[in-house]
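Lab meeting, item 3. Inverse folding demo.
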């Protein structure tokens, strides 16, 4: 079994937990996000919110000095999945068959869509660029932005 398969299996079973988040979990998110960002985050499916908290924790373990913008990106990295409006089973199917049809295509394009959503609500540039996988600046793999993007991807894939 590949690392990607393990990641997807964990995400699937984690998505089946429909229990509400604890107040303490919301208290982690609230001070990080702007009012508009918190509204979007609150609109995400419970499994995606739970996953975002896990990604934030792993991201901070990799990059403890992360800025607020970088922390926001960790919490909002899947916000574009709101556009596809797919449930757990449909997401599995979309992963298997690929970007066919509008909703499956939106699911696969969630990074770009999330970046657009965040840009429209006034999120700072670093946050929406990280969510979109579009790090500005030098293409040097040793650049700070590239290291941040790498840490965010590793946190998401763990």
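The presenter then showed the designed sequence:
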């Amino acid at each position: 079994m590949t690392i990607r398969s393990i990641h997807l299996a964990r995400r699937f079973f984690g998505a089946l937990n429909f229990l509400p988040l604890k107040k303490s979990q919301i208290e982690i998110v609230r001070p990080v996000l702007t009012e508009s960002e918190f509204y979007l985050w609150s609109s995400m499916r419970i499994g995606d919110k739970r996953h975002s908290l896990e990604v934030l924790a792993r991201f901070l373990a990799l990059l403890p000095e992360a800025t607020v913008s970088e922390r926001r990106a960790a919490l909002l990295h899947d916000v574009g999945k709101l556009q596809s409006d797919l449930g757990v089973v449909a997401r599995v199917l979309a992963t298997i068959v690929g970007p066919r049809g509008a909703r499956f295509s939106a699911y696969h394009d969630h990074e770009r869509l999330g970046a657009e959503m965040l840009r429209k609500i006034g999120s700072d540039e670093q946050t929406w660029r990280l969510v979109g996988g579009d790090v500005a600046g030098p293409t040097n793999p040793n650049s700070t932005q590239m290291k941040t993007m790498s840490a965010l991807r590793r946190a998401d894939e763990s």
